[in-house]
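Below is a filled-in request sheet from our internal design queue. Each sheet records the structural input a requester submitted and the sequence that came back. We keep these sheets so that new team members can see what a complete request looks like end to end.

REQUESTER: design group, bay 2
PRIORITY: normal
MODE: inverse folding
CHAIN LENGTH: 671
BACKBONE (tokenized):
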């Protein structure tokens, strides 16, 4: 095994030349100095427990073994977080976080350190509990939250169906109210109506928040959340009328038992309709919510988490690729000289540094949308729903952009590591599986882009909207002043492109209308331009947030300079990548593009000087990184070889059974 004191000389040389405080960036990402200390102590507390380590790499386990092994760790982790912590530690147990009114983020935070293939308990913390809080009445919260928080019951969130996804109005699962018994009758009327995909549903959860069409007094009142028991609390056997199981292997996240669920006239009490916003009275009378958008709160909450996850995932991927690019030497840059670090090649820098810059952009964007979410929910509690449309539009835009860009960047970073990046032990296959999954779950991205577009078109037509779309309203519209290539000037260009695409989509819709198309047909025929408008809007929001955050945060001179350079670099990367849009809508000229391309090349050289130290400042433990290529010590080749020796095929020099039964007879036979 690699000696613990080893440090690759190339990495060591890079680290010795660091001219900024790495802890400053670490604290910026964590939130502050105290939060960094909290995270480090918590991670050490988790990783120091031998019972949470894998005796056999999960890649060599069967599907069933993988689920059991990772569930064991998830349960042990929850138990560990319940226990009293060392006196000197500053982090909080689950109980203490609950008492302090903080989110129980164990499903997405601490668990990611040891559960790299998914967490069967994740949705219990990230969706089931938030759904009860966001959708349940005070009485329902008092009844169900203590049990859920204590994990006396384990739940998931069952919305997607085999034949229906993001389009909620198309869901088929029915919940029909029976006033005689004061119960709802849940039914799955067809194969396509089976719930399909919920994490933890297959074998782990015994309860679920189920989204179903509510019928009362002969009328469908639309999609509503119901709290439904699925399994016996003692035996864990499915209850009568419940058909539940696991859907099988996936591209990634294979220790998470995504499941299917069907109902055969299953009865539940009336008070298991979550009634914070709408109610069904005992006689079947339906009481409407103040706004139909209130029911989307749980999904908005999860989309905010996803943006945070994408920033974290991108930090892991770019750490692996940057460190490996530092220790890998390849080819001849100058004839007759030793093979250089591949980090010195401009083509390699072009693969790495956009992702490095984007990891900060999505971090700041996640912070912004998270703050907006908390402000909006606070206002909702006071009866003020004014921020809901903007929150919904912004969370859809940020989720769609962060996931699609992260998936693209992770694949580029994998390729940057050559053949070794294709190894499972590199960490990239796992990261790619998570990134691509995120493009689909909690709102498929194309559908989300069209939802964002609808908000943009409505804002432009009505002349009113929230903060994120203020630039589309009246006198706020971006002017066509002379092109300015400062950061503020480039933001103006992004704004002009977004507004230009919105206007172009509106013209296209209007033209289809003049040709006699129905509004829904016109929308379908304009979808390509509408999606481009939504994407341009999202890029503008992230770019603007990046620029503002670097300006407004309290930073030292060296760190502010680094973030300014990364910000400018990302903006130029996105602009050059879509230069046609800027020629079309922002009066960009050839000479402007030439200046930007020259600046881009200059920034590649500047970022090269501190890239290794910036990824070090992400402060990701090797165990959490999960990559032989990206470990702190840079001993990539030894770690690759050590990992290969763990293969069951290497236990013996000859795989005797297959040789005797198949290979030997083949070689002895005559063709």
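RETURNED SEQUENCE:
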């Amino acid at each position: 095994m690699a000696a613990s004191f080893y440090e690759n000389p190339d990495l060591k040389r890079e680290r010795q030349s660091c001219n900024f405080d790495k802890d400053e960036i670490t604290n910026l990402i964590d939130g502050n100095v105290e939060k960094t200390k909290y995270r480090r102590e918590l991670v050490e507390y988790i990783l120091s427990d031998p019972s949470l380590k894998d005796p056999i790499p999960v890649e060599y386990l069967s599907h069933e073994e993988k689920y059991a092994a990772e569930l064991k760790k998830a349960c042990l982790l929850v138990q560990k977080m319940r226990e009293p912590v060392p006196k000197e530690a500053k982090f909080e147990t689950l109980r203490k976080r609950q008492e302090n009114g903080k989110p129980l983020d164990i499903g997405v935070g601490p668990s990611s350190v040891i559960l790299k293939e998914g967490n069967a308990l994740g949705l219990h913390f990230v969706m089931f509990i938030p759904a009860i809080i966001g959708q349940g009445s005070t009485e329902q919260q008092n009844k169900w939250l203590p049990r859920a928080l204590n994990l006396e019951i384990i739940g998931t969130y069952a919305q997607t169906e085999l034949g229906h996804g993001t389009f909620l109005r198309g869901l088929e699962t029915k919940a029909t109210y029976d006033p005689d018994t004061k119960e709802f009758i849940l039914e799955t009327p067809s194969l396509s109506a089976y719930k399909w995909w919920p994490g933890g549903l297959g074998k782990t959860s015994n309860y679920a928040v189920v989204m179903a069409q509510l019928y009362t007094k002969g009328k469908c009142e639309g999609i509503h959340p119901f709290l439904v028991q699925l399994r016996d609390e003692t035996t864990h056997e499915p209850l009568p009328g419940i058909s539940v199981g696991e859907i099988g292997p996936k591209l990634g996240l294979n220790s998470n038992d995504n499941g299917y669920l069907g109902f055969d006239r299953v009865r539940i009490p009336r008070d298991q309709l979550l009634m914070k916003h709408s109610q069904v009275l005992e006689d079947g009378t339906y009481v409407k919510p103040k706004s139909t958008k209130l029911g989307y709160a749980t999904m908005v909450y999860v989309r905010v988490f996803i943006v945070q996850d994408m920033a974290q995932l991108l930090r892991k991927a770019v750490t692996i690729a940057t460190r490996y690019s530092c220790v890998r030497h390849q080819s001849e840059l100058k004839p007759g000289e030793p093979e250089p670090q591949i980090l010195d090649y401009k083509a390699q820098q072009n693969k790495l540094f956009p992702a490095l810059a984007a990891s900060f952009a999505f971090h700041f964007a996640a912070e912004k949308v998270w703050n907006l979410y908390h402000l909006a929910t606070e206002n909702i509690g006071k009866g003020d729903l004014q921020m809901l449309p903007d929150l919904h539009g912004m969370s859809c835009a940020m989720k769609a952009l962060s996931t699609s860009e992260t998936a693209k960047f992770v694949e580029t970073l994998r390729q940057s590591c050559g053949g070794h990046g294709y190894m499972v032990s590199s960490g990239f296959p796992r990261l790619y599986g998570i990134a691509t999954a995120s493009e689909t779950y909690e709102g498929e991205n194309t559908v989300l882009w069209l939802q964002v577009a609808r908000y943009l078109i409505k804002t432009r037509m009505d002349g009113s909207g929230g903060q994120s779309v203020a630039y589309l309203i009246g006198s706020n519209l971006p002017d066509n002043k002379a092109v300015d290539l400062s950061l503020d000037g480039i933001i103006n260009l992004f704004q002009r492109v977004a507004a230009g695409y919105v206007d172009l989509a509106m013209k296209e819709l209007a033209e289809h209308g003049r040709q006699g198309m129905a509004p829904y047909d016109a929308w379908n025929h304009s979808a390509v331009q509408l999606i481009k408008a939504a994407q341009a809007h999202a890029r503008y929001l992230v770019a603007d947030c990046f620029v503002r955050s670097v300006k407004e945060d309290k930073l030292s001179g060296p760190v502010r300079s680094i973030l300014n350079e990364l910000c400018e670099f990302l903006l130029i990367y996105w602009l050059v990548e879509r230069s046609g849009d800027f020629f079309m809508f922002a009066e960009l000229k050839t000479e402007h593009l030439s200046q930007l391309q020259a600046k881009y090349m200059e920034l590649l050289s500047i970022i090269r000087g501190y890239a290794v130290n910036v990824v070090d400042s992400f402060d990701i433990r090797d165990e959490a990184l999960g990559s032989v290529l990206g470990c702190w010590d840079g001993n990539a080749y030894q770690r690759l070889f050590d990992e290969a020796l763990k293969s069951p095929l290497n236990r013996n020099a000859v795989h005797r059974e297959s040789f005797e039964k198949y290979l030997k007879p083949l070689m002895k036979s005559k063709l």
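SHEET NOTES:
- The chain has 23 helices and eleven strands.
- The longest strand covers residues 219-229.
FILED BY: M.R.
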